[in-house]
Amino acid sequence: MKKILTILLIALSLNAFAVINDPGQSNSVDNLGAIVKQDVMFINVLNSEATATLLKGQLVVADLTDDNGFGVVSSSVSAVKPMCMLLKDLAVGEKGRCQVYGYTDILLFDASVTASAGEKIYVSGDNSGYSVYILAREAGTSGLPSVADALDASSVSGAIEAYLRLL
């Protein structure tokens, strides 16, 4: 009986030390120090558009006419900071996950201004009707809210690798 209690106590103490950091607070690394999981944060949303499908990688804003806290729409208003980035196409009335923080390689990008690695990415002021895309700008020149940091250089419109900071 004493051996069983000792083994049980050892097993419980090993489990207590298995989690070194709080879940969701840091990247996970393997025994060689390589990052194996990058933390990201998501929220659940609902496409509140009347007729439009929202696109994967698109930045969306809160639907202020719905007042439910989870409805999102596209925006042609450039000065509005986006709520999150969609992880899949959402048809009208469809629910899905929307990323608010962390690494992504699907953020839609308007390359009318070339992005450099490490550069801040801002909501487009030049193509506000082009709300599916965003625009890279030099820090401090746009007056618009920064939404992410570019991780790669890009001169082509489409998906870009970035680190989202929409919290």
Layout of strands and helices, then pairs:
Blueprint: H1 2-16, E1 28-29, E2 35-37, E3 41-47, E4 59-62, E5 71-73, E6 84-86, E7 95-109, E8 120-122, E9 135-136, E10 146-150, E11 158-165
Overview in brief:
It contains one helix and eleven strands.
Radius of gyration: 21 Å
Shape by Cα distribution:
extended
Q: Which percent bin holds the helix content?
A: under 10%
User: Which sheet architecture does the biggest sheet show?
Assistant: 5 strands, mixed, barrel
SS strand fraction: 25-35%
Total number of strands: 11
How large is the count of helical segments? 1
Overall average pLDDT? 76
Integer count of domains = 1
The end-to-end span amounts to 53 Å
Order of helices and strands: HEEEEEEEEEEE
Q: What would you call the structural class?
A: mainly beta
Order of adjacent strands in the largest pleated sheet: 3-5-4-6-7
Provide the low-confidence segments as ranges: 15-24, 126-132
